[in-house]
Amino acid sequence: MNKVILMGRLTKDPEVRYTQNSNTLVASFNLAVNRRFVKQGEERQADFVNIVAWSKIGEFCSKYFKKGQQVGIIGRLQTRTWDDEQGQKHYVTEVIAEEAYFADSKKDSSNESNAFGDFATSETSDFEITNSDDLPF
């Protein structure tokens, strides 16, 4: 099974382009997803995940998603490769969006309540890591 569920903030507005052959809309954006674990004395870290949304979902994302907004994405992980002009192979891993949701509260965008309900974690449920022996992996 290949299923990814992410909640994070957009690092910039989605970029839109169209395929050459079928003129299909493709929106791409980067999502900053906070890590759940915080090492003592360090700031919270985030992972920056590439998101690709095709057709209707891409149109929705490009129309309504803006930089800094908290959103939820459900999709699948995909890895692809290509060769550049010098013949060097490049790899990229990205999430192909199958569902997209607003995750900010309507009243206050800094409020932690969102469309995912129980999927969201609050600050109080995060773990603090005092040394690397506390890591669960």
Question: What does this 3D model show about the protein?
Answer:
By secondary structure, the chain is mainly beta. It has one domain (4-131): Beta Barrel (OB fold (Dihydrolipoamide Acetyltransferase, E2P)), CATH 2.40.50. Helices cover 7% and strands 47% of the residues. The strands form 2 sheets. The chain has a 5-stranded mixed β-barrel with strand order 1-3-5-7-6. Strand 6 (70-83) and strand 7 (89-102) form a beta hairpin.
Q: Brief description of this entry?
A:
The chain is mainly beta.
Task: Please tag this protein with its features.
5-stranded mixed barrel, 1 helix, 137 residues, 7% helix, OB fold (Dihydrolipoamide Acetyltransferase, E2P), mainly beta
Layout of helices and strands, plus pairs?
Blueprint: E1 4-10, E2 15-18, E3 25-34, E4 37-39, E5 46-54, H1 55-64, E6 70-83, E7 89-102, E8 127-129
Parallel strand pairs: 4-8, 5-7
Antiparallel strand pairs: 1-3, 1-6, 2-3, 3-5, 6-7
- Shape, please? globular
Number of domains: 1
Termini separation: 21 Å
Q: Which oligomerization state do the chains in this entry correspond to?
A: single chain
Query: Which fold name fills CATH's third level, the topology?
Result: OB fold (Dihydrolipoamide Acetyltransferase, E2P)
Number of helices: 1
Order of helices and strands: EEEEEHEEE
Task: Please outline the major beta sheet.
Answer: 5 strands, mixed, barrel
Strand content: over 45%
CATH class: Mainly Beta
Sheet/helix structural class:
mainly beta
Helix percent band: under 10%
Q: Rg from C-alpha positions?
A: 17 Å
How many E strands? 8
- Which strands sit side by side, in order, in the main sheet? 1-3-5-7-6
Low-confidence stretches: 109-132
